[in-house]
């Protein structure tokens, strides 16, 4: 039978720790275990990864992207405006505000590339016009993050479908993520040679 052994010095040290400290240590160990178990299976999509893999536009179109964190879009609706584009209406200080929320982990696909390092990603089924733009940010380790047309202090402006929305500073850190394991398997299958037969 196998038995685990521990150092007498460690056992002595543990018995000298006050009970309240033991409880704190156990909580810390539990938290570390939970963080390890709940860690994301996805990897940030970065400019370095993009260049190392030498993905073509066709390759990127087959990649399944995911949002790293929530993105909240909001816009003020005019007094006579009745059409709700995508979100829900809230009345704030007597003003009607439309909110569109894209949750962390929402899957998206590439629908357009205006530049080599600019990805138009759609998170809505069968609607290529509903997209947000992402690109590498040096300050964020060259992760592909949400891009806005302009930033004024903590508020950015982005087009979503036919409307102009505002995003807060927290949404600016929303990044694209990928499942590298699945993409590796997919790339392998893509490059698998089927063979060639002699023509009669």
Short description:
This protein is of the alpha+beta class and 200 residues long.
Present the secondary structure layout.
Layout: H1 8-16, H2 19-37, E1 43-44, H3 47-53, H4 57-61, E2 65-67, E3 71-76, E4 88-92, E5 95-102, E6 107-115, E7 118-122, E8 131-137, E9 143-146, E10 150-152, E11 155-160, E12 163-168, E13 176-178, H5 180-190
Antiparallel strand pairs: 1-13, 2-6, 2-13, 3-5, 4-5, 6-7, 7-8, 8-9, 10-11, 11-12
Distance between the termini: 69 Å
**Computed Rg:** 24 Å
Quick check: average pLDDT?
75
What order do the SSEs take from the amino end to the carboxyl end, as H and E?
HHEHHEEEEEEEEEEEEH
Strand content: 25-35%
Shape: globular
Task: State the major sheet.
Answer: 7 strands, antiparallel
* Strands ordered across the widest β-sheet: 1-13-2-6-7-8-9
User: How many DSSP E strands?
Assistant: 13
Q: DSSP helix count?
A: 5
Poorly predicted regions are: 1-14, 25-38, 188-193
The class by helix and strand makeup works out as alpha+beta
Q: State the helicity in percent bands.
A: 25-40%
What does this structure look like?
This protein has 200 residues and is α+β, with helices and mostly antiparallel strands. It has five helices and 13 strands. The strands form three sheets. Strands 1-13-2-6-7-8-9 form a seven-stranded antiparallel β-sheet. Strands 3-5-4 form a three-stranded antiparallel β-sheet, with no helix packed on it. A three-stranded antiparallel β-sheet has the order 10-11-12, with no helix packed on it. Strand 11 and strand 12 form a beta hairpin. The protein is globular, with a radius of gyration of 24 Å. The chain starts with 7 loop residues before the first helix and ends in a 10-residue tail after the last helix. The relative contact order is 0.16.
């Amino acid at each position: 039978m196998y038995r685990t052994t521990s150092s007498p010095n460690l056992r002595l040290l543990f018995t000298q720790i006050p009970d309240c400290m033991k409880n704190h240590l156990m909580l810390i160990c539990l938290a570390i275990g939970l963080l390890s178990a709940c860690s994301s299976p996805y990897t940030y999509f970065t400019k370095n990864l993009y260049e190392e893999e030498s993905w073509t536009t066709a390759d990127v179109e087959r990649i399944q992207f995911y949002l790293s964190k929530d993105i909240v879009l909001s816009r003020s609706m005019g007094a006579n405006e009745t059409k709700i584009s995508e979100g829900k209406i809230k009345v704030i200080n007597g003003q009607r505000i439309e909110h569109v929320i894209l949750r962390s982990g929402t899957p998206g696909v590439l629908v357009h590339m205006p530049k080599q390092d600019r990805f138009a990603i759609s998170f809505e089924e069968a609607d290529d016009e509903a997209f947000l733009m992402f690109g590498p940010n040096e300050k964020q380790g060259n992760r592909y993050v949400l891009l806005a047309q302009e930033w004024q202090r903590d508020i950015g402006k982005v087009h979503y479908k036919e409307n102009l929305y505002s995003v807060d500073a927290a949404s600016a850190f929303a990044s694209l993520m990928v499942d590298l394991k699945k993409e590796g398997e997919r790339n392998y299958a893509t490059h698998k040679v089927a063979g060639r037969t002699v023509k009669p």
